[in-house]
Amino acid sequence: MADITLVNLNMLFMRYGEEIERELHVPLGPLYLTRALEDAGFKVDFRDYQTCSCDDPFDMNNFLDFLADPAPVIGLSCMANLLPFTIQAIRALKQRYPEHVVVLGGVGSTAVEDKILKRFPWVDIIARGESERSGVEMMRALQSGSSLEGIRGISYRDTDGGICHNPKQDRICKLDSIPFPSFHKINLKKYAGYGMMTSRGCPYPCTFCSVAPVWFLESYSRSAKNIVEEMSFLNKEAGIDLFLFQDEFFVSGKKQVMDFCCELRKSGLNVEWKAFGRVNLVDDEMMRAMADCGCLELRFGIESGSDKVLALTKKGFTAADSLEIIPRAVEIFPRVDAFFMWGFPFETMDDFNQSLFQMVSFRMMGARILPSLLSLLPQTDLYKEWSEKYKLEFCPYLLPEFVFTGHELCYGGEVEIPERYKEYFKMIMDNPDIFSGFFHMDLENNVLPKLKLLRQFGFYPEKQEKKPSDGSESCGAHSPRITPQELATRAGR
């Protein structure tokens, strides 16, 4: 009998007309927590909902079948896009297993813990931030029947029904002290994407960012040796030869990156990898060292071509910095991704046109341009500042890519909400302050005119009639799906 059933609900599941796109990615966060719980002596029943083979994972009967016979404590992890589904799933679990304790974890509930606990009484506990310490302490308290009062990093109801938010948990500064995730709980060979954590947190206060606030703007990194040891383990155990360093601060400094490249070359591993970078923290020597030891893709969050917007979002560099680095990166790496964000409430059409010009220029140079509509997540400084100035608007045919859930049907550059999921989206519309990432600010004058221009320049597909996918629809990964002939990569690569 397990002590806790831990469920990963983060998944890539998209509907393009009659087609479905799904891809399995190793669920790092829940597997790190699983390892911490196992090392503390708890028996963990880990279940990755990505691996549910049913045609419709959002049918609640399918979910309940997948979660049959859970342990007395059930923990579910999700990101913002699947927070609404997760809340509904918890309600179904509590109806079937009313005596079980259900814990909501992951970044999806960040900054709205109080609202969730007040409006959705079936959620028992919410875990905040890193859970390697909090999770162990919480399980000990639950099993012993003792108070949750002294456990940092959790929110819950007390015995009188009051909402309690305990102080935040101290950050884990020495990341090398964290054991590798519990990879033995999954079949690694079944997964298509292998992410790795090289750091936790980012010190840059970008006002639109939903990640840095989760880590309190503090960043800590693993040693190069520790990272390469995990790569070697995964390569040996499952033949993995392509890694994605998906943390925002892989390029935290030149020495950190150069040490990693040196350690990887010394290991003799024949692997390739992708990483995120910042244009103000890279130079030619660093980029060439990365490319020489297997980096085939470097991703930059450019966000805007307007210095005014970059300053207002506290991005930490200028448009000129991007114009200096991107052409050089394109000459060094097989692929360079440039992420742009649009739809800021303070972004004038002149500001947007500067971004559009830069996007066109980088595309001509050979970079792949990945535009995404601003998602107003509640933990961001931008949302906190501007949500009182604009009414949040829900548009049933246009959602930010960041919060695509898999319920939607994608037709060209628009989406359709199927009738069977109307109640799901009604919950979103009834709670804009919880699910703000699904909403817009000034749809008519801010969002739609910019979308029209993006379509004219080929960054979003033109509105289409309802028909099966032809491969050109917008995907849920911050970019439009495009045909091979349209791929913005350098010729011959």
What is the fold's blueprint, element by element?
Elements: E1 4-8, E2 12-16, E3 19-23, H1 28-39, E4 44-48, H2 60-66, E5 73-77, H3 83-96, E6 101-105, H4 113-119, E7 125-127, H5 132-144, E8 154-157, E9 163-165, E10 195-196, E11 199-200, E12 220-221, H6 224-238, E13 242-245, H7 254-267, E14 272-277, H8 284-292, E15 295-303, H9 307-312, H10 319-332, E16 335-342, H11 349-365, E17 368-373, H12 381-386, E18 392-393, E19 409-411, E20 414-416, H13 422-430, E21 440-441, H14 443-456
Parallel strand pairs: 1-4, 1-5, 2-19, 5-6, 6-7, 10-13, 13-14, 14-15, 15-16, 16-17
Antiparallel strand pairs: 2-3, 7-8, 8-9, 11-12, 18-21, 19-20
| CATH top-level class of the largest domain | Alpha Beta
**Integer count of domains:** 2
End-to-end separation in angstroms reads 53 Å
- The overall average pLDDT, rounded, is 92
**Shape descriptor:** globular
